[in-house]
Amino acid sequence: MKKILFFAMTIVVLLSSCANEFNQVYKSSDVYYKYEYAKECFANGKYQRVVTLLEPLILTMKGTDNAQECLYMLGMAQYSMGDYEAASMTFRKYHTSYPKGTFAEMASFYTGESLYQGTPEPRLDQTTTVSAIGAFQEYLDLYPDAQLKRKAQTRLYALQDKLVKKELLSAQLYYNLGTYFGNCMTGGSNYEACIITAQNALKDYPYTSMREDFALLIMKSKFELAEQSVEEKRIDRYRDAEDECYGFINEYPESKKRQLAEKYIASCKKHTAGAEDDD
């Protein structure tokens, strides 16, 4: 019991000593003393202390031999803490201030990486995702032989997939709303909105791995649109839906939804058979 108590007291004393040491450094007017202490903290993973010490030093260190390292180290400390928004701004500031600096290439990469780490799930606003794509694209344009080129490209694919996923969720939402008219303020249809959203996504992202998902939503929406149509539009819409079904089968012959497409085709033919005889 005495050993445990002694150990606990030792820890308290050490922590108190460290805190006192940091406070002395923080209150010191010696800029270089603070800077060297911040480097020591960074090496030991004490990133909050690094940020606390370096943020006020950025302007003071500007124009000195240590200015670049000071700014870059601040960005890395913020990134390591998970403060990605602050880190992206610091890395951007570094690259703007020192475009040919020692850490310019890495600062450019970590501008994108910080934004990447801060991107939200696909259902939410994707402004940060778009910014991250722009940052990584800039990195690859500026440094075509960059050491982290492959990682940046992988990040770009992942970010693009997030944008595609958001479009897919939007299209799916329109489809799920179906005949609910409260969403159609302009007098259109949720199925039409689904079709347009999915078609635009396929134009913008022609090589997406979610291509079949969009095609399926288009096919289902065209069929439902035909089912809900007024008499004068019904035949044309059933024909359009039938063409879409054949197109889906041709593009995805092994699809798990092939039976659904064939079911739709049979239903469409029943509705258009009489019209074809009249033609």
Question: Any key phrases for this structure?
Answer:
single chain; 279 residues; mainly alpha; 13 helices
Briefly, what is this?
The protein has helices spanning 2-27, 31-43, 47-54, 58-61, 67-81, 84-97, 104-117, 127-142, 149-177, 190-204, 211-228, 231-251, 258-278.
Explain this structure.
- The chain is mainly α.
- It is 77% helix and 0% strand.
- It has helices spanning 2-27, 31-43, 47-54, 58-61, 67-81, 84-97, 104-117, 127-142, 149-177, 190-204, 211-228, 231-251, 258-278.
- The longest helix is centred in the middle third of the chain and has 29 residues, at 149-177.
- It is elongated and about 90 Å long.
How far from one another are the termini?
99 Å
Low-confidence stretches: 5-16, 183-187
What is the string of SSEs from the N terminus onward?
HHHHHHHHHHHHH
Q: Percentage of helical residues?
A: over 70%
Roughly how many Å is the radius of gyration?
30 Å
Averaging pLDDT over every residue, what do you get?
A: 89
The major sheet is characterized as: none
Structural class: mainly alpha
- What gross morphology would you assign? elongated
Please report which band the strand proportion falls in: under 5%, 5-15%, 15-25%, 25-35%, 35-45% or over 45%. Answer: under 5%
What is the number of beta strands?
0
- Tally of alpha and pi helices: 13
